[in-house]
Amino acid sequence: MKKYLCIHGHFYQPPRENPWLDEIEKEASAAPYHDWNERVTRECYGPNACARIYGRDDRILALVNNYEYMSFNFGPTLLSWLERRCPRTYGRILAADQKSRSRFGGHGSALAQVYNHIIMPLASRRDRLTQIRWGLADFRRRFGRAAEGMWLAETAVDTGTLELLAAEGVKFTILSPGQARSMRPLARDGESPAWEDVPDGGIDTTRPYRVRLGPGKGFIDVFFYHGPLSRAVAFEGILASGSDLLARIEQAFPEPGDGVSLVNLATDGESYGHHFKFGDLALAWLFRRLEADGGIELINYGYFLERFPPRHEVRIVEKSSWSCAHGVERWRSDCGCSVSRNPAWNQAWRAPLRQGLDWLAGELSAVFEDAGGALLRDPWAARDDYIRVILDPSDRQKDLFLDRHRIGPPGEKARTDALRLLESQRMALYMFTSCGWFFDDISGLESTQILKYAARAVDLARPWAAKDLEAGLLDFLEEARSNDPDMGTGRRIYRTRVMPSRMDPSRAAAHQALTARIAGPGKGVPGSSLRVETGPGIRIGTRDFSGVLGTAAVQDTRTGAGASRVFLVLQSQWPRVSCRVGKAPEDLDLFRLARAVRRELAASGPEAAAAAFSRRVRGVKRYDVADLTADTRDALVRRAAGDLMDRIGDLLQNDRSVAGMTALLEKTGMDLPGML
Question: pTM value?
């Protein structure tokens, strides 16, 4: 019996960016790293691209790119982040797929993934198509080839999803053994073999299967991973050593016989280094050992299918997944599946969260069809094609995209409106990212994140909405109660954890003005998609207060939408600094405004100056250091604290009594305090 082994890693992080900034903000729970993407990259994604093989003297003998030897998929939004933030690791992932083609008969080991990891059986047909098309287009752009296989989020599946995969050219996917309902040999020469039920994951996982779809819809092939072996890797600690891993793999093969046998296992790729420290080393050792021994041949799914096409067909369990014993209920109800299994907690919040976002998605779809239909020949075809702009948001690509899809002649307003509506739809898809329901409470990082996407979708669609979409969503969230009494309901979580993340033009202008006042000029919110250009400011000050009056042009580089603002920054001393921002009137005379503000500041102080500003500018809002992004605020506070310590140090160095104490401590051999 010829033995083959395929190890699949599903490498994935949910999109984490603040949707108003397109940038990940600091995530305290990921400490000591900035955010979870950075942490897991350091612990897993990077190490697996350059895993160490040690000799007996603990010296490094070789470095192994594990991705060359395994089957893998990376979430497209994670790859986008890696491309920007960790280009070396990103490059090694792409190179591994190229090298795997040479190793595995021209079949690359990378698989595509439905774009932002939504539960496909719970999505509309239109959303499922976009997820597949975006995932395939993203894959093609990065790996330079068409994807043979596609990973389904949480392996959640139904026949309708398989039909769409096959229609888009996907050859195979991977499911858990518990998702097989029945099987039989492929019918030949008019035969019709009887179906055999395979309950409780009892299907033979050593071979591929064919799923015949509806009339005229063809078929798709499926691999079912080895359940016990995959669980051992994911949960039982067998990655403690490569030899333990090899022993369990050898046990997974059936008794020797004729033909071929495939052992394939599939887990979250994060098992190899993040969930289990040094799991990447165990994997690298295994790959080197198998190459040297030759008894078990490494292979990937595409190559195995070419050499050993299915001889059996299978019926799947409809609306099933690998991480919920109740099908797909984990993403819409209190089914009992959880992470902590705290007996005092429940997940009743999942239902109103799902219902609220389903309602919102319907409203946003209606807005998109109506408003988008006046701008785009086929709004839904344009949405499918919008992945080109997501992958390349340059002005040139946007122009090419709109040339293909717009109705009528080009115009700046029509351009901005179309892009704004399409961005709203991107957010409407992101708000269904599966992690929002996976964990134990609606107050968690992942649930809060999908609500941010919902809020951003609402903001972008607001000019065309006939009703208050945010109020409608909040009505549903009122029914979603947190297990933490301090958190209250989803409505309160939305107000306390989602709304403070909003970055509108006024706050962006304030961010720029405050940061420039404290630390020097910049070009907007650091690292974000918001660009802020400030004009020459007019300095305003007295003996006790200093400040600046100026204008700011704010642009969302995603949509091209722009806004003009006028601001007033007043400061006594750090950290007592504030900024008023309002909409700049068309007839703004900045010098005249400066004279009025300066007069009130000199006569009556900062509050009177701010009042004078507010009387002459529309829609004024007040901002202070607390309204800066967390990363900017932390950097400024650290800088100010460092400056303060330097000044204290200078004072101490010039104090004679301190000099005497220092000499005494040195003479007696005692350690100097850190400040000295």
Answer: 0.94
